[in-house]
Design a protein that fits this description.
By secondary structure, the chain is mainly α. 54% of the residues lie in helices and 4% in strands. The chain has a two-stranded antiparallel sheet. The radius of gyration is 23 Å and the shape is elongated.
């Protein structure tokens, strides 16, 4: 299972908000998707990132606090890379002309 920039972005957003539902709203994705992505990161790392309590603000674990700084650095680096991409010129427009012969026309 890969550790992606998107999963890191989701983790950082949850850590900032302290709430999975609010993070989901901010990211415009479902709350179960946020939970699944954070759990995927936890499985990859081998330790919990949050001390979860139902109905309460999710607090970062000790390991989560240490990982948050590294994750923020990676998310910032990815954003900088994306911003430095050269802007491509507008793609060319194509026109398609279709002609139909008398044998293919619909007859009524």
């Amino acid at each position: 299972m890969a550790l992606t920039f998107r999963k890191l972005e989701v983790f950082v957003t949850v850590a900032q908000d302290g709430n999975f539902r609010r993070a989901a709203e901010r990211l415009s994705i479902s709350q179960p998707s946020v939970s699944a992505q954070v759990k995927s990161v936890e499985r990859y790392l081998g330790y919990p990132l949050f001390d979860r309590r139902r109905g309460a603000t999710s607090l970062l674990s000790v390991e989560g606090q240490a990982f948050l700084e590294r994750a923020r650095e990676l998310v910032r680096a990815q954003s900088a890379l994306a911003a430095s991409r050269p802007k491509l010129a507008r793609p060319p427009r194509y026109h398609l002309r279709v002609t139909v012969g008398p044998l293919l026309r619909c007859r009524t």
